[in-house]
Amino acid sequence: MADHVSAHSVRKPNRWLLILFGTALALAGAGWLWSHDAANSALVTSGGGGGGQSKLNRERARQEAEELGARLNEAGANGNVKAIVRDVERFAQRWPDYAPAHTMLAQTYVLGGRTAQAYTEVLQSLKLDPLQPQLQEMAGSLASNLAKHEEAVAHYRAVIGLEPKLVRPRLLLAQELINQNDLAQAQAAVLYALTLDSNEYRGYVLLADIFDRQNKVAQALEQIDKALAHLPASERAQVLQCTRHKARLLRRDNRPAEALQVLAALPPKERLDMTVLDDIAACYALLGTPAKAAELFREYLRADPTDDRAAARAVHWYLQAGDKPNARLMLERLKLANPRAGDIPMLEKRLHQ
Q1: What is the mean pLDDT of residues 197-203?
Q2: Spatial CA neighbour of 121 closest among 137, 104, 136, 134
Q3: Which of 131, 193, 207 is CA-nearest to residue 165?
Q4: CA 74 from chain center: how many Å?
Q5: Rounded to whole angstroms, what are the CA distances from 285 to 7, 212, 279, 316?
Q6: Structural contact between residues 175 and 17, judged by C-beta atoms closer than 8 angstroms
Q7: Distance of alpha carbon 168 from alpha carbon 160, whole angstroms
Q8: Cα distance between residue 27 and residue 30, in whole Å
Q9: Residue 13 per-residue DSSP state
Q10: How far apart are the first and last CA of the chain?
Q11: Do residues 328 and 353 lie in contact, with contact meaning Cβ atoms separated by under 8 Å?
Q12: Using one digit for the tens of pLDDT, what is the confidence trace for 35-54?
């Protein structure tokens, strides 16, 4: 098991930040899909003919889209997207110059976990109708998931160009820039977003991450405190993540006792989250009391003797404390909880060293 108090070194993207933003991969329902008919009216050309025929084609495409969109929403709600994929693909083939057809197919592929194909269809829809800010945002999210980072940045900038007063795309742009380690541009994007809405807690979260990556821990702590101040108390998942972020920053700043106080202030149920217990254990380790970390997980096992994660952690921290008898006891508990646990060979080796 990895030591939970390893030094802050090479930084990976802070993926939990994406939780704060949700995802742009789901469109806002079939009603939105067909809201750009006017922009696409001259592009619905399947079937040929003059102006009257074009109008008829447009109406046929719109009606078919509405019917198919309703079915797609139902299939998505029922978790049965596979049943409708072929119908949506045929629809897009019949109306290759109708942007909403490609948007619908992209949504279908997203629901089916086919990200690359979804991105291809989104690009085709945007080629036919570039003035779709929400779809540009979706394209940015898809591109980011496909590790097409330059494309993601371009999509988010396109959203900003279409909707300069929106805060969210600027924050998504900043997150993408952070993941590319372009911290100066990311900071500029966040600061501008906060001029549009100074109550947007996610902006302060991003600033905290930027300062953290620059080893400016004091500034990072200041920003995470602002994020917590602007977070509604009802947003418990985000409050928990920001609280853990603050505790980690305090540990980086060699203030484990303060970090422990921050985590202790969480509600009892949240303190029993395994990731929070790991954070608390890391504080005990920095305070030179790894035995307390071990007891933390041993106590957890009293409530749930079958939790092999807690048992493995108890073994690890008893070994860190040099208490092999209790480590051996907890290793037996681990074997009872899960004889095939992957940590067993490594922990046994450490025990017999």
Answers
A1: 96
A2: 104
A3: 193
A4: 25
A5: 13, 22, 10, 12
A6: yes
A7: 9
A8: 8
A9: P
A10: 15
A11: no
A12: 333 334 334 444 444 445 46
Phi, psi of 35, deg, nearest 5: -85, -5
Mean pLDDT of 124-131: 94
Structure tokens at 201: 């807690």
Query: Is residue 63 classed exposed, middle or buried when 0-12, 13-18 and 19+ CB atoms within 10 A define those classes?
Result: exposed
By the 8 A CB rule, do 138 and 67 touch?
no
Which pair of structure tokens corresponds to residue 73? Answer: 């929403």
Q: What is the pLDDT of residues 20-35, one digit of tens each?
A: 344 333 333 333 333 3
The SS3 of residue 324 is: helix
Instruction: Please give the Cα distance from 208 to 214 (Å, whole number).
Output: 10
Lookup result for tokens 């700043």 = 253
Inter-CA distances, 347 with 13, 274, 321, 336, Å: 30, 19, 14, 15
DSSP 41: G
What's the predicted TM-score (pTM) here? 0.79
Euclidean distance between CA atoms 266 and 250, whole angstroms:
16
Give the Cα separation of 75 and 55 in Å (integer).
30
> Residue 317 and residue 309: Cα distance in Å, rounded?
12
Contact predicate 129/149, CB 8 Å? no
Cα–Cα distance, 169 to 17 (Å, whole number):
14
Q: What is the pLDDT of residues 324-341, one digit of tens each?
A: 999 999 999 999 999 999
DSSP string, 333-351: HHHHH-TT-TTHHHHHHHH
Per-residue model confidence (pLDDT) at position 156 = 97
Six-digit token pair at 294? 């071990």
* Distance separating alpha carbons of residues 122 and 274, to the nearest angstrom: 39
- Which helix (H) or strand (E) segment is 216 a member of? none
